[in-house]
Amino acid sequence: MSIRLRLTLWYSVILAVTLVVFGIAFYYFVNYNTYHVMKGKIAAQANAINITSSLDSFDNILIAPQSLLGDEELYIQVTNYKRGVYQQTSNLKRLDAKFEQPDPKTVSEDDEGFKHVTLGGQYPFVVYQHLLKQGNEVFGLLQVGAYSGTEDRYMSELRTTLIFSLIVVVLIAFTISLVLARQALRPIENVIQASNSIQNGSDLSMRIPRIGPNDELGRLTDTLNGMLGRIETTYNELDEAYKAQRRFVSDASHELRTPLTTIRGNIELLERMWPPALEAGPGEAAGAEDDAMPGVDARRMTMTREAMHDIAGEAKRMSNLVNDLLALARADAGYEMEKTVQPLLPLVEDVARRAQLLPRNADWKIGNLSAIDNVEVYAHADFLRQLLFIFVENAFKYTPSGHVELRATRSRDQAGIVIKDTGIGMSNEEVPHIFERFYRADESRGETSGTGLGLSIAKWIIDEHGGSVEVSTREGAGTTFTVWLPIAFHGTLNEV
């Protein structure tokens, strides 16, 4: 429920309660004044009858003639409980009805006073009842009444008017309050619209329109506009810094690749040109050394060769790191791959064949690949190979013994490539973080080499191909990665 509607409901409820209290008080005030004069006249007539008439006789009750009562509008009835008789004035006799009387056996002081009664089911009266006593014994009842039809109709109409007026006033007040609340809270609507526009479109240049006086909402609008200005400035500065960082990483990666390639090329050239004599065994080294390179110290040559091996290994590791950084820089820069329709089976078989040459301790098994026979995907072939090599190398790295298996599966319009190992596995707490950059499981730190970038690159490649990856793992029981790729059917392309 909106603030506007809640405020309107509160105002309407308060107004309704106020009007109800006022209406009830007004009604009872008018009711009292309307019947007060009539009741005073009735009570005065009852006292006059009690004094002037022979009502104190236990055996006989006489009522003064109507002409002596002086008021044709009053209706009088006297009842003698002992003799079982009653007397009425002529006007009451003409109605052919009589006032109801309390049971003589249960009559008490509570029966004395004013009562509202109806004669004949259609004539409303206000009746004053006076108990006639001799000592403590009640021997009769004096009833003096007046027709109250006019007053009752007036009070009924007053009740209807008050109720109808209450409903109309509350509805009008509710409508007006709703309009006024909407107008008063319009700046908040502007704040919400501007916030939604910024959230959906990332347009930090939008500002909230300034409407109305310099009240609390106006100051809130100014504060939010100032805050948006500072956020826009900070965001632009951070965006520029982030762009500069991405350019630096990309440029540095490109710049580093050239010297690393040169280093690796020269080292490999030196290794190929190294004298074969130094490759001989310990027993042959001295004689061969004298013939091939006289005066060269064999021990120094061995140390030099070991140093060249180390340089070559580190240069290769740095090349891999630079290539990973370059791939991530492309991902951050929004690089879009140029994809074409590729047959999946030959590509996977090529990866399986080349994976046999990777350094490993586990056995390499190629499972059933028939599920992807004649299956085509919309992909970038080189990046797709890199994706599969990342998972295969990762499996070899964390499988010190056992085997790593590659097989294929299919589910409706998706082809799945499964890489399963029997390695160290992972805990459930580690799985949500494995695709984060530089993340490495605690159990593997210090035991296996790597930068923690491989799976991040793999996730980027999968996302660019519109695919997904499933992970099933258990500590000490290995890990299974299933890469799902959308199939490109003839005549349609599942573009990302």
Tell me what you see in this structure:
- It is built from eleven helices and twelve strands.
- The chain is an alpha+beta fold.
- The protein folds into three domains: 3-169, Beta-Lactamase (2-Layer Sandwich); 211-332, Orthogonal Bundle (Helix Hairpins); 336-486, Histidine kinase-like ATPase, C-terminal domain (Heat Shock Protein 90).
- Helix 1 packs antiparallel against helix 4 (149-184), helix 8 (298-332) packs parallel to helix 11 (454-464) and helix 10 (381-397) packs antiparallel against helix 11 (454-464).
- The longest helix has 58 residues, at 216-273.
- The two termini are 41 Å apart.
- The chain crosses the membrane at residues 7-30, 162-181.
- It is found in: Cell membrane.
- This is histidine kinase.
- InterPro entries: HAMP_dom (IPR003660), HATPase_C_sf (IPR036890), HATPase_dom (IPR003594), His_kinase_dom (IPR005467), HisK_dim/P_dom (IPR003661), HisK_dim/P_sf (IPR036097), Sig_transdc_His_kin-like_C (IPR004358), TCS_sensor_his_kinase (IPR050428).
Features:
elongated; 3 domains; disordered C terminus; 496 residues; five-stranded mixed beta sheet; Heat Shock Protein 90; 51% helix; Helix Hairpins; alpha+beta; Beta-Lactamase; HisK_dim/P_sf
